[in-house]
Model the fold of this input.
Amino acid sequence: MAFALLLGATFRYRRRNISRLTLIISWALGTAIILLAIAPGLFNPFLRLFNFREGSGQRLIGVLLFAVLLIFVLLSNAMSRTDEAIRSIRVLVEALALQAFDRSQLESLPPGPRILVVMPAYNEEDNVGAVVHAMPEDLDGYPVVPLVIDDASEDATSAVARDAGALVARLPIRRGGGLALRVGYELALRLDAAIVVTMDSDGQHVPEEMSLLVKPILEDQADMVNGSRVLGEFERESLIRHIGVHFFSWLVTLLTGSRVTDVSNGYRATRVDILRRLVLDQDQFWTSELLIEGMRHRLRIREVPITVRARASGASKKPKSAKYAWKFTKAIVQTWLR
Done:
């Protein structure tokens, strides 16, 4: 095993797959393992420093203990480097999407504050146009501006959305609805929006119900308004997903102490001026993160009844139930632990 470690590290270094530091660490570990197998007595002085003496398996216990500690340090370092790489990719993708945004689309926008409707979309060419066309032109005097964030679709989602009259920003690679949402929020801050509404682009949310979400904010009764299918109506997709809606809402209620009935629903409205206070990191499963962050900052959050329909056409982009449940739970816990 030690020789395999030495040879493997050397081969990977020559192919520039690992750094010189990783090569040195690998060689040090491999050499230590070989020496431990050939001449274990060489390590006796070191083990005696920690009172691991010969006999009764104490030296073996000592070696195993130090091996576990070393593995823990290396694993922590690897996780830290992975987190840094993920953050770097996230920032890069967001920056590229914002830089590539065609600002000539803004020439036809009416002046003054507006309501920006952000819709993450991936391969929704069959649905996104109808959703955009169904939106109200204004709410309480505020122009409603649809903004589709194309999550690197492989079809004509961007073209269909643009032809329907929406602003379009496109991610260079697919990263998920959470990152698409952050791009939309940044554009909302830059486009003088007063309120940002998020909704699905697959036809599950009813654009005509947008006033229910926006009205409490316009009347200064809330900072964030969450649409709830539990309080309203919904077409059940499956028994498992129906149970999941209630379970995730119960979990967030338990962790935060604030009652919420539909944490996995993405139809909501938020005052734009509070967006810079929220820390949003999730690339996927972002609906719970936004609510928990709002609760952390003691925002005035209300729930209103809305309707959730079955998607108009096409297949759901959500993973299978078990994988979805695990990742959604993980996102909730990670956000709560910050």
About this structure: The longest helix spans residues 58-100. Residues 232 and 305 are 4 Å apart (CA to CA). Strands lie at 114-121, 138-139, 142-150, 167-170, 193-198, 224-234, 268-271, 301-308.
